[in-house]
Amino acid sequence: MAVTGTKTVRAICTSALRKAQVVGMDETPSGSDMAEAVGLLNMMLKAWQMSGFNIWTYTSASLALTTAASYTLDPVRPMQIITARLKRGGIELPMQDMTRQEYDNLPQKASTGLPTQFYYDRQREAAKLYVWPVLATAGGETIEYTYEREFEDVTDPDSELDVPAEWWEATLYGLGARVAESYMMMVPLQILAPRAQSTLNAALQFDREGSVFFAGPYADA
Question: Left, alpha or beta for 160 (phi > 0: left; psi -120 to 50: alpha)?
Fold first, then answer.
């Protein structure tokens, strides 16, 4: 029995257009209606990136270190870096996250040593990762980091929707409300707007890591 199905952008957009009563239940959306729904879906997903959850977008990457103080993360632009570890000789050591002010206040940004801290500067496109101190000589060290990726851009209606199944309902009603607002369908909007909020709240409440890890003298208590 399959439990990991996918939805296409077209399927979600078609359902949202129907719930907003832009098209009938047995009608196929026109090209212009589909384009409007796709555009609204893309903007909605990008706005959802600010929620701070989106556990399914967490992923990992590796950055090869040189003697530089900063590195451009391009084309990958993390929404945020969750954790970073310096890897040397097969051993990973946690690094401390700095704010911009803390990095700016460093008196010697070119100080050499084993990098123990990092500052992530999320730009509009290509982001930068700063490390401190910097390596005097590179010997195969890397930074292994876990980050929250951006939602995939919605461009092709026949592509798979970049949300898991537990977010389908929130996506459908959220998009339906936006479509109704765009087309000034006020009666459907009055129904869809509260439903969009309640399904989004439910998805956000579920979207948390479920593991609780205990370490130290009380781990086996």
Answer: beta
